[in-house]
Protein 1
Amino acid sequence: MAFKVVISDPLSEEGIYPLREAENIEIDFATESTEEELIEKLQDANALLVRSQTQVTRELIEKAPNLKIIGRAGVGVDNIDLDAATENGIIVVNAPDGNTNSAAEHTVAMIMSLARRIPHAHASLQEGKWDRKKYIGVELKHKTLGIIGLGRIGAEVAHRAKGQRMNVIAYDPFLTEETAQKLGVKGGTVDEVLEAADFITIHTPLLDSTRNMINADAFKKMKDGVRIINCARGGIIDEDALYDAIESGKVAGAALDVMSEEPFVGHKLLDLPQVIATPHLGASTVEAQESVAVDVSLDVIKFATEGTVRNPVNMPSIPTNLLKKVAPFFELTERLGKFMAYAAKGKVQQINIKYAGELSEVDVRPLTRNTLKGFLSRNYGNHVNDVNSRYLAGRIGIDINEHKTAESKGFLNLITVEVVTDEETRQVKGTFLGEKLGSRIVQVDDYAVDVFPEGHLLLIYHKDQPGAIGRVGTHLAAENINIATMQVGRTEEGGKAIMVLRIDHSATADEIKEIVDMPNITDVKAIDL
Ligand code: NAD
Ligand code: MLT
């Protein structure tokens, strides 16, 4: 079946060309659709591509049963309910770099326009006036630009401001002295930026911590005659406080590309002659629109064909060099997790995953997500994936612990998955022996075994006594269950022992009931990997 992609906001035609060209991908446009029509189209959709208009709410996400990936052609994902996407196992990707340059250039255009009042002068000229006195501006040279948020766009703006011979002071919680030096900016606290700047430009995301960060208190700290630019997100500046600060003369001008509610047609700030505004045009260039649409289209194709993405928002991306190291263990970890979902009895409290040998040097978080995916898949089926496995495990109260050790008992690598329930603690260990030999389960609880982690297994705990193996074999033959391989492990002669049988089809509870009742058999588990 084709991988269906619904596009609900207008995207550059050149940008979606890779999707049109991809094999087995079907595109459905919902750019003119009502919400009901969009929901209808999403019923069999696997991907949804949006810009900032479509509000991807929890309700919308929950009404899209087959959705696997949401692509945001742009940076900000504040129109997407990320928690709801993660909880539903939907990966969200964005295009973080595609419009950086355009947004930075737009910011510079806004700074220039504010300084020289170009839009006002143009409007006045259009009204037939030749008013040269009214539109005296200010120079940028040697003025101080304050940048709040020195990420991709903030840094590009800093470069350009240096070109205008401005002094730049910036605040970003992650700004290091080294980066500040490299960019030629002075690092400061928020207050130092507010106090020093002649122009202040905002480049943070809209977060709980940045909402209304430029408020009445902040305006008080600024220089008289300061000019403010917001090409990031509406809501970071308290618009009522900005209005008052302009009316009082504290703020000489404001340039806004974004506002807390968009479209912001008719907003009272637009009535002030000190304000210039554009309708969220920061990324609206031919180049940026093509670039962001190409980026998300390629990620959707990558997801549909390889199951991975380059720009995940709700799950950490795996750098290529790490992917090379962990990818061989994906299948093994998922199978070990699944194995334990069948092997452990009782309410699960804790899952401890130990990575030994060569894996002790590696970022193993992708493997932990995979183990949890395997473990939870018994109950969550395909509702669990590596986007939401950690979230789901946490939600049901399982405590997840990762351990690393160089000691790997003679194996090159060894992964132990231990499950602690309110009734027992069970363990399985596995190793990857290389491309040719594949993976093996090498220990189940205290018993050393050598089992391929695949197919249908029967785990039979018994007392090491003559006859046990024979009786099991005879019963399975009577049930027409063929044994492909068999492994026996024991702690000591005559002590506790385990049989691990690979059988040709999944054994039902009825088929193994008699084995459970046999003498010297203590427990039987049927495991489908
Ligand atoms: P980015 O993630 O590269 O940078 C954001 C920076 O903000 C980070 O360095 C982060 O550390 C910093 N930050 C977070 N909280 C902060 C705080 N409390 N104080 C100071 N800094 C803080 O993002 P980006 O690509 O540079 O985008 C910046 C903003 O611009 C985003 O809001 C994005 O949505 C918006 N944007 C708007 C347009 C537009 O059309 N107007 C286009 C592109 C991006
Ligand atoms: C963004 O976050 O990328 C911008 O707001 C641009 C947009 O998509 O409108």
Protein 2
Amino acid sequence: MALYLITGGAGFIGSHLAEELVRRGERVRVVDNLSTGKRANLAHLDVEVIVGDLAEMPVARRAVEGADFVLHQAAIPSVPRSVQDPLTSHRANIDATLNVLIAARDARVGRVVYAGSSSAYGDTPTLPKVETMAAAPLSPYALQKLVGEQYGQMFTRLYGLETVTIRYFNVFGPRQDPSSPYSGVISLFISALCEGRAATIYGDGEQTRDFTYVANVVDGVLTACHAPGVSGEVINVATGGRTSLNVLYRALQDLIGARVEPGYAASRAGDVRDSQADITKAQRLLAYRPTVSFAEGLRATVEWYRASQVTIT
Ligand code: UD1
């Protein structure tokens, strides 16, 4: 049995990785500062939990000790939050990442798989977005995520630490927390519609995203731990489609059976217009294909929010 360290493992995506690894009989350790993660996300799992802030080096060193793989998910994953408070996001997204890489190098970890972000592409004129395109970050968050992946590649070149970046595209699913204005849009729309409140669409709602159900990301990340010939690579993991916010909103209205109309507000600073992944590289290097479609994922997510006892505020 290998030991997997999941940084940010009490969060939305991290807890899904933990769940799948435990299901496969692997050993899991989580390190999380519980800033957005919750212990409740792991309550059903037999995992070791370290509560601490990876921006402090001793925490990073203690966390990676004995780990075979590090799945680095810890971050403040919000574009608008980074626009408002770039320093706090920098500390969480860059300082902590550098600590994790140094600690992983020194502890001779087998491979680090890093949670990259589609936001690194910015507003490229061409869709879908392919990994060979030049990055063009539009927000501190996007830049920080890009720096994290480049640090990983540099550690591979300089020190021989195996690193892989999986670029996520608007991941959604059960346990995504809708309680902050910075939460992912699908969680916010579902919670509003379930409570009969009007959600807010920023801009005209015609911006598009490659919304990706979390199980697809779990597949991609766990395959990237073991796949040969991927060290130093940056790989998109998504569905390859794109959906506008207006279409998303209507799909959720139908699923939930709520007719309340959205309010429209000014576009958010740092927002990307269109986002759609080319997933050819993931197919080639990871034999990846999305196993849960956007529509199936949306149904499963709505069902989860309905069934869960979570009080949506
Ligand atoms: C970005 C990144 C994504 C990253 C995520 C972390 C891009 C293309 N993607 O997502 O890789 O993982 O940050 O948060 O940059 N919106 C509304 N109403 C709301 C909330 C959001 O209309 O109440 C809109 C936003 O303006 C945006 C879209 O919905 O156009 C998606 O927003 P959000 O879910 O916050 O994610 P991104 O910023 O796209």
